[in-house]
Amino acid sequence: MQELIDKYTAEVDAFSPANAEELEAFRIKFLGTKGLIKDLFEQFKSTTPEEKRTLGKVLNQFKQLTEAKHQELKEQFDSQLTTSTNQQDLTLPGEGFAVGSRHPLSLVRNEIIDIFKRLGFVVAEGPEIENDWHNFSALNFPEEHPARDMQDTFFITKDGGQDSIALRTHTSSVQVRMMENGKPPFRAIMPGRVYRNEAISARAHCFFHQVEGLYVDENVSFADLKQTLFHFVQELYGEGTKVRFRPSYFPFTEPSAEMDISCTICKGAGCNMCKHSGWVEILGCGMVDPNVLENCGIDSKKYTGFAFGMGIERITNLKYVIRDLRLFSENDVRFLKQFKTEIV
Question: Which CATH code is given to the segment(s) 104-339?
Fold first, then answer.
C-alpha cells in the first residue's frame, strides 16, 4: 500500500493539465466517489493496527496534497476564464443611455409658477406637518367643521384644541405663516404636497399637490381676483378658454366662488371628463375673510385680499387628458416617458 501511495503521489506532483476537461478527469480519478483515494481508504481498513499507525498519516497527507493540487489548478483556470470573458473590444460603438424626463406634475407645477411669477407673485413654502392653529383655527374653521374629523385628516396627535398635530390638508397654512411673520403687501403662491384621509381611486388620492395664491394689499377687490385668474387660464390653456365663477363657501374667504373653465377635451360639447356639462371646475377662490386677517395680526379695515387654490393633478388631467390619478404615483416608466422634455 505504501508503494501505491508513493506512485500516486509522484503522478499528482507531475500532473499538468492542458485544459479544464483534463483537470475534471483528474478530480474524478483521484477525488471522485469511486476514485483512487477512496479505494485506498477502503484498503486501509483491512491493515493491521501497527500498519495503521504508519499508513494513516501518510494517506491523509496524500489526500491533502491531491485536494490542494486540484484547487490550485482550478483557480488558475477560473482566473484565465474571467480574464478572457472581460476583454473589451474597444472598436465597438458605445452604448447609449435613455434620457430621463420630468414628471407631468412637475411640468405643470413649473408652468403655473412661471405664469404667476410674470404677474409679480413669489413662491413661498412651509412645513407639511402642521399644528391646528395654522392648518385650521387661524383660517376660520369652527370647532365642529367636518375637516377636523379623522375621516378627512391624518392626525399625528389629537390632543384637542391648537395642540393637535396633523399632516397639512392644504397649503393655506403657508399663507397663515406668511401673514403672521410679515407685513402687507403680500403677493405669493404656495405650491406643495397635501394629505387627506380619502379612499384611493381614479378620481381621488390620500396625497396630492396644490398651488394656492394670496394677494393682500390696500384696495384689493374681487375684480382683481377675476382678472388675475382669467389671465392665468388664458396662459395655461390658450386664448379663447371660457371662464365662469359660481358662488360657493369656504371658511377662510367671503365672498367665495368656484371657477370653471370650458372643457378642454370636448371643447364644451360634453364628455365624461366634464360630466357632459361642457364645464370643468379647476379651483376655488374668494376674498380673504376679515377674521383670517385679524387672526394673523393684519388690520382688516385697512387691508383686503384675495386667495385661491387649485389641485395640480386636476389641472394636469385636463392639460394631458389623463383619466386616472393613480398613474401619477405609480412610477410606471411607460407612462412617464410620454412626457419627455429637455432636462436643464
Answer: 3.30.930.10
Residue type, 30: F
Segment 1-9 long-range contacts (CB within 8 Å, at least 24 positions apart): 1/40, 1/43, 1/44, 1/47, 1/51, 1/55, 2/55, 2/58, 4/40, 5/40, 5/55, 5/58, 5/59, 5/62, 8/36, 8/40, 8/62, 8/66, 9/62, 9/65
CA distance 269 to 13: 92
Query: What residue segments make up the domains of the chain, in order of their start?
Result: 2-83, 104-339
pLDDT tens-digit profile of 91-138? 888 777 777 788 999 999 999 999 999 999 999 999 999 998 999 999
For all residues of the chain together, what is the average pLDDT? 86
With CA atoms as reference, report the closest residue to 272 among 318, 315, 333: 318
Give the per-residue pLDDT at 186: 95
| Backbone torsions φ then ψ of 155, nearest 5 degrees | -85, 135
pLDDT tens across 216-246, in order?
A: 999 999 999 999 999 999 999 888 889 999 9
Residues 113 and 118: their CA atoms lie apart, in Å, by: 9
172 Cβ partners below 8 Å, 6+ apart? 135, 139, 190, 212, 252, 307, 309
